[in-house]
Write a sequence for this structure.
């Protein structure tokens, strides 16, 4: 940004005095991010929701009141009570226990598929943007083809090929998320590549691998993290949808989407069968999205100035 | 009013001032604390006079102008004091009334002519819009008025350029368009915020002449904001020196220049390079440094001759040519080429500074990048320290880059913002496997001390340093590999005058102690005169004149060299009434068709080593 643009927006240039500050350990960086996030009203509540889900998921086997897989044909479709706070399902299983254990599955779905997508997409995109020319054209046309399919449809095709299971559903979600990270990484790399400090590295005779890893990646990482948070929420939704369609997690597994699918036949007589797993999905996705919005504000230096 | 703290200009007796500012204090909010950026500033702008506010970055000069225009964001800024324009206190006006004052009574022009115009509208329309905002006009009336304005700012063939878009204009022409727009409603006051800083020196001269002429014709007052003492001397009747938000001195320009009292004024003036101050010297000269607080001048040590012309040159360039292809059409076929560098040759010896000067687009930066093969030259031979650069494969090229290092223009962009500076300085050394981490650390600490920083700053990040300090870090980083040659591409151009002087002195010191050779690429003739041994003047990709510094500056032979030198503003207010009478022209473009065959060039030797291109 030119200094003029800076002036026009009224931000004074920093005084030409170096800040007297010895060093900035990682903890202060995190404190700084938290401080910025407080400016977005919903970021911290969002983060709190996500944190609660993570704690519950970790502690699930110890805090679940019942065995999530234990059938009790005497207690089918019971409404919420002191014994079963969320009621029981069509096989008499405790829904609270199943939702708690299901939180593990959902978080794993989100994190695993997004990590896999980033692992493939980010290096592809960065290389594509950094090398340019014919390599870039070829990689980007492949990505374009992948983007041409509607997301869920592509995932369904992949699962049909691999066979329905939770792991395959996660792989499918990862594959259809790859192009998003590839494009984002490529675009950010293209702009960072033109920065003078990259040219300075080249003139110092550094290897391309080092320039990519040490100089370009840290400067595009914040954009990627924000996108990752957003995609985790979407991945949870998509994986649940696949499970709902019977393409993901299979029968006894307490996956929220699968629970919805099994409960939908009893929705009219026992609405709690779908309300609690459905509500859990909504709450977790909402929490992640609110958190993501605050993260975007905190990591974007331009927004931070305000 | 507090006379002791803030000096005021003597009140004009006969006429009341156009603009009168009293006790202006502007504060910005940062982290919920209000910090004053401009403190208790009072001054007048008399009718038909030019008042310059001069200062370095962070002095509050631009904030002053934005405060007058009330263009600062409301939530994060706070303005106190009176701003009286033609009998009206601008501070008390409603937003709507203030909007009508802008453009009608006060207009403003900005630094970046490249971004101040909207790229999707023809320039005629944009000026017409500025006209009709304040005065209802029919289309044909507006058009006639716009053409009159374009004529007034001396844009050739004004009528035919009405429908052209901003990208069809050069920087200087765009600044003329901006001025035409600012003059649309005959304002009483024109605020010019660094209007010539982004322009080439010959174009700057034209724009300064234009502002003077327009002032004679229309009798408006000008508030001119700049960091360049040369420009101040040339244009301002009165001058206000600002330092860290306060006016430290104000008065008629001659008084400030000849009898400046405040130590900061003296420090600023002594740091300004003056073209022609080196007459009779053959070696470079350090800048005198004046202490900002006491006004004492530090003695400048003499430099010793470091040039080793007897040995073979450390960098030798023969017939270097670099071109960029232009593709167009559906099949993006090659249709033309930018002849950025055309058949240039030069030698650089150990301990020598060879400066390449010229205006934007002359190929000086391309030359620097071609020498290190950051750009692949089309042909030519480059020999650095015994390596034939053009013949090297990739790994060998990486090794060669140890002998030649670059320092770039923008100290804010040339350091990775996410890396501690110690790591950044050590990195090239470790990457080339020259030693252990511990050795790298010792060497980096040593070099940081050498460039005037402290070794314990290694864990800080780039944004914690000022521009001058960052440029020192960039120099330390370049030195980490013990290079023979440093290519300094506009390395001091973005720095404030006093910092510029210090960094130039640092470069001279390092040359003295390490026998470095510099390829110093710059557009600033005055700096070049100070620090070079030899100078090459480039124009449209070719060297038009090259020779020992004294020969080129004292006896310039090529018409372009003369034009360049006459355009440099001289910080001497007695030359204020002079106009250069430069013809209104634009820089020529080095884009050639594919059939173009570069003519064979011959050089005439004026004196030993002083060559001039024959036409």
């Amino acid at each position: 940004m030119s200094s003029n643009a800076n002036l026009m927006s009224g931000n004074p240039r920093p005084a030409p005095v170096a800040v007297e500050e010895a060093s900035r350990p990682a903890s202060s960086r995190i404190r700084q991010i938290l401080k910025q996030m407080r400016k977005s009203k919903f970021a911290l509540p969002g983060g709190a929701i996500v944190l609660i889900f993570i704690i519950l998921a970790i502690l699930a086997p110890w805090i679940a009141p019942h065995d999530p897989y234990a059938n009790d044909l005497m207690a089918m479709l019971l409404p919420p009570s002191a014994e079963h706070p969320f009621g029981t399902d069509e096989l008499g299983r405790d829904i609270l226990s199943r939702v708690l254990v299901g939180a593990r599955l959902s978080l794993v779905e989100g994190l695993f598929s997004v990590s896999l997508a980033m692992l493939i997409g980010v290096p592809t995109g960065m290389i594509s943007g950094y090398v340019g020319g014919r390599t870039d054209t070829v990689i980007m046309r492949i990505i374009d083809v992948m983007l041409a399919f509607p997301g869920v449809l592509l995932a369904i095709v992949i699962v049909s090929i691999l066979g329905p299971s939770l792991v395959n559903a996660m792989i499918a979600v990862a594959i259809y998320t790859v192009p998003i990270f590839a494009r984002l990484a490529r675009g950010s790399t293209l702009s960072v590549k033109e920065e003078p400090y990259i040219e300075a590295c080249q003139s110092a005779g550094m290897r391309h691998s080092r320039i990519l890893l040490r100089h370009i990646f840290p400067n595009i990482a914040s954009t990627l993290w924000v996108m990752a948070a957003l995609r985790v929420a979407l991945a949870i939704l998509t994986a649940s949808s696949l499970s709902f369609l019977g393409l993901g997690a299979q029968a006894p597994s307490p996956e929220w989407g699968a629970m919805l699918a099994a409960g939908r036949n009893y929705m009219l007589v026992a609405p709690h069968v779908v309300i609690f797993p459905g509500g859990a999905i909504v709450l977790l996705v909402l929490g992640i999205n609110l958190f993501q919005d605050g993260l975007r504000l905190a990591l974007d230096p331009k927004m931070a100035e305000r | 009013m507090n006379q002791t703290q803030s000096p005021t200009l003597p009140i004009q007796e006969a006429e009341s001032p156009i603009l009168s500012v009293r006790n202006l204090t502007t504060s910005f909010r940062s982290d919920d604390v209000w910090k004053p950026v401009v403190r208790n500033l009072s001054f007048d702008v008399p009718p038909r006079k030019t008042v310059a506010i001069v200062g370095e970055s962070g002095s509050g000069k631009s904030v002053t102008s934005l405060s007058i225009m009330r263009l600062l964001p409301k939530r994060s800024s706070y303005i106190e004091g009176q701003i009286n324009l033609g009998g009206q206190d601008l501070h008390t006006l409603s937003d709507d009334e203030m909007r009508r004052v802008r453009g009608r009574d006060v207009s403003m022009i900005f630094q970046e002519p490249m971004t101040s115009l909207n790229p999707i509208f023809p320039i005629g329309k944009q000026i017409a819009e500025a006209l009709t905002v304040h005065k209802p006009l029919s289309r044909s009336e507006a058009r006639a008025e716009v053409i009159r304005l374009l004529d007034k700012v001396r844009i050739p063939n004004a009528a035919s350029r009405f429908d052209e878009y901003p990208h069809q204009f050069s920087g200087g022409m765009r600044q003329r368009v901006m001025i035409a727009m600012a003059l649309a409603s005959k304002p009483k006051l024109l605020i010019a915020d660094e209007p010539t800083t982004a322009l080439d020196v010959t174009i700057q001269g034209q724009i300064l002449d234009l502002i003077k002429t327009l002032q004679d014709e229309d009798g408006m007052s000008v508030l001119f904001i700049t960091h360049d003492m040369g420009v101040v001397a040339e244009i301002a009747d009165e001058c206000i020196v600002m330092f860290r938000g306060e006016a430290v001195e104000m008065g008629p320009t001659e008084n400030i220049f000849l009898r400046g009292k405040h130590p900061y004024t003296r420090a600023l003036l002594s740091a300004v390079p003056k073209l022609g101050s080196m007459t009779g010297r053959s070696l470079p000269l350090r800048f005198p440094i004046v202490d900002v607080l006491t006004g004492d001048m530090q003695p400048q040590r003499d430099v010793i001759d470091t040039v080793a012309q007897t040995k073979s040159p450390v960098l030798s360039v023969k017939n270097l040519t670099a071109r960029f292809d232009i593709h167009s059409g559906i099949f993006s076929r090659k249709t033309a080429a930018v002849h950025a560098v055309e058949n240039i040759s030069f030698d650089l010896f150990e301990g020598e500074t060879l400066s390449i000067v010229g205006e934007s687009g002359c190929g000086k930066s391309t030359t620097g990048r071609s020498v290190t093969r950051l750009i692949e030259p089309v042909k030519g031979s480059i020999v650095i320290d015994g390596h034939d650069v053009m013949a090297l494969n990739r790994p060998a090229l990486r090794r060669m880059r140890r002998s030649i290092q670059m320092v770039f223009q923008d100290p804010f962009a040339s350091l990775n913002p996410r890396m501690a500076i110690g790591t950044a300085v050590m990195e090239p050394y470790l990457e080339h496997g020259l030693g252990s981490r511990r050795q790298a650390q010792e060497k980096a600490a040593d070099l940081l001390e050498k460039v005037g920083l402290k070794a314990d700053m290694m864990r800080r990040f780039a944004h914690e340093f000022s521009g001058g300090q960052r440029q020192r870090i960039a120099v330390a980083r370049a030195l980490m590999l013990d290079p023979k040659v440093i290519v300094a591409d506009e390395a001091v151009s973005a720095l404030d005058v006093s910092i510029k002087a210090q960094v130039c002195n640092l470069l001279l010191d390092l040359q003295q102690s390490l026998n470095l050779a510099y390829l110093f690429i710059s557009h600033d003739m005055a700096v070049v005169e100070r620090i070079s041994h030899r100078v090459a003047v480039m124009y449209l990709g070719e060297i038009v004149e090259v020779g020992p510094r004294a020969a080129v500056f004292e006896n310039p032979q090529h018409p372009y060299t003369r034009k360049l030198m006459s355009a440099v503003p001289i910080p001497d207010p007695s030359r204020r009434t002079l106009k250069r009478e430069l013809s209104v022209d634009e820089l020529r473009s080095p884009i050639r068709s594919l059939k173009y065959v570069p003519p064979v060039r011959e050089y005439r030797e004026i004196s030993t080593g002083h060559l001039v291109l024959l036409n």
